[in-house]
Amino acid sequence: MCIAPANMPNTPSSRHGPRRRTIVLVGLMGAGKSTVGKRLAARLHLPFVDADQEIERAAGMTVAEIFDRFGEAQFRDGERRVIARLIDGLPKVLATGGGAFMHPETRQLILDRATAIWLDADIEVLAERVGRRDDRPLLRNTDPRAKLRELAELRNPVYALAPIHVRSQPLPHDATVDAILRELHG
Ligand code: S3P
Q1: H/E run at residue 111
Q2: Sheet of 115-120: strands edge to edge?
Q3: 90 near 62, Cβ under 8 Å?
Q4: Buried b (16+ CB within 10 A) or exposed e, 39-58
Q5: What pLDDT was estimated at residue 180?
Q6: 1 falls in which pLDDT band (50, 70, 90)?
Q7: Which residue CA neighbors atom 9 of ligand 1 most closely?
């Protein structure tokens, strides 16, 4: 397998564009964007960045606090700015929050300037994974399974605009990383 280092010029070898582009993982909460993203970055010798963590760092508060204090629309605007800045920088693997790709400007930026990968999983797998954390504002005071189903119906047709679609395997994560690498390198 030929994996171009981050500082190599454009290589025509990959099916989905030169490896100078940042790889952006999109998909629902619990799809494994951060866990898989970290492993993918290690395999590609690229840095890994989690957009939600960058937003939290920039705002000096948690995602839940931003939702509480300023509302979702403000969060989405900050998310758009942070993702634009990250895509502007050196190539990396970037995990985005589940709603980022739903924002038309953020989505266009990702589609134009990066390689988007939709990481997808069954509702049961997502529900089991989101159950491990209780800091997601959209899943508070609601039945997470029902909410995830509702979001999947709304968002999956949009995630499907990503040029690469990979099903997240329940275990091990490296199987998902292998599937992504096969898609990237053909
Ligand atoms: C959201 C997903 C979260 C976070 C915020 C909103 C969403 O990120 O950005 O709670 O709209 O789906 P993860 O997908 O990393 O959980």
Answers
A1: helix 104-113
A2: 48-50, 93-95, 23-26, 115-120, 164-167
A3: no
A4: bbbebbebebbbbbebbbee
A5: 97
A6: very low
A7: 97
Residue whose pair of structure tokens reads 């040029």 in the numeric block: 163
Q: Is 134 exposed, middle or buried (0-12, 13-18, 19+ CB in 10 A)?
A: exposed
Can you read off the two tokens belonging to residue 150?
């509702």
pLDDT of residue 47: 97
Query: In angstroms, what is the span from residue 136 Cα to ligand 1's centroid?
Result: 7
Query: What is the pTM assigned to this prediction?
Result: 0.90
* Residues 83-142 pLDDT 10s: 999 999 999 999 999 999 999 999 999 999 999 999 999 999 999 999 888 889 999 999
Q: Can you read off the two tokens belonging to residue 28? A: 């629902």
Which residue's CA is the nearest one to ligand 1's atom 11? 99
Q: Which pLDDT score is estimated for 19?
A: 62
Instruction: Please name the amino acid found at residue 176.
Output: T
68 in Cβ contact with 137 (< 8 Å): yes
pLDDT for the residue 15: 57
Query: What residues flank ligand 1, with Cβ below 6 Å?
Result: 29, 33, 52, 63, 97-99, 136-138
Q: Give the residue, out of 29, 38, 62, 140, with the most ligand 1 atoms within 8 A of its beta carbon, to mutate for a pocket test.
A: 29
